[in-house]
Amino acid sequence: MREPLVKLCGNRSKQDLAYSADSQATHLGFIFVPGTKRYVRPERAGRWINEVNPDQTLVGVFVEPTIEELEIVLHYVPLDIIQLHGNETVSEVLQIKEHFSLPVWKVIHHADFGVDYMHLFKGAVDGFVVDSKVKGVYGGTGVQFDWEAVPAYRKEAERQGVPCLIAGGITAENAGEVLSYYPGGIDLSSGTETENKKDRNKIQALMREVANYGASISGSKRAVR
């Protein structure tokens, strides 16, 4: 059992990025969807990254972007992963991967047919993020779905050989619960914020919970041996 990935998303200031980078998170996310509350202009994000110089994997979140829109962002921001949060088709995903030679993660909104929808992207994506579905809102809602569904999503991702992160309503207080379902990782925005800004104390509390989980699975491995 691998230790979970941790993505701190929705960084929208240099201070946000500094707090997120000064943690054991594995991935840092930026929202490049105009009109959303966590949207950041790519030139600003690029400047913050140059100044903070984070070690983590950088993820850009988009909703049904054009190639031209992605090119503009990538001109300023050295993204490692493109995350697609809309109704992108398999052919559109493959076009983006071919054009940019970057890994693509696809967001799946939790629903009765969620696992079947994941299966459509087999061989096309490099990871999944399963999030709550809230009408008219693309992520960062603070709303969680029924985590008893997590194992089904995890198993489908494992069959495809890619990670599956869980998003929606995760905080330091409930991270242990969602991690008990052994997802490939967790993805947080609002759960690490106070008054719409990253909260260093909340980030540290979250990472303590993740570390405790990591220690517990390491202990389980030793016990099995």
TrEMBL record:
It catalyses: N-(5-phospho-beta-D-ribosyl)anthranilate = 1-(2-carboxyphenylamino)-1-deoxy-D-ribulose 5-phosphate. Its EC number is 5.3.1.24. GO terms for molecular function: phosphoribosylanthranilate isomerase activity. GO terms for biological process: L-tryptophan biosynthetic process. It is an enzyme of class 5 (isomerase). The keyword Lipid biosynthesis does not apply. Residues 7-207 form the N-(5'phosphoribosyl) anthranilate isomerase (PRAI) domain. InterPro entries: Aldolase_TIM, PRAI_dom, RibuloseP-bd_barrel, TrpF_fam. Pathway: Amino-acid biosynthesis; L-tryptophan biosynthesis; L-tryptophan from chorismate: step 3/5. It comes from the Bacteria. Keywords: Amino-acid biosynthesis, Aromatic amino acid biosynthesis, Isomerase, Tryptophan biosynthesis. Belongs to the TrpF family. NCBIfam families: PRK01222.2-1 (NF002301). This is N-(5'-phosphoribosyl)anthranilate isomerase. It comes from Thalassobacillus cyri.
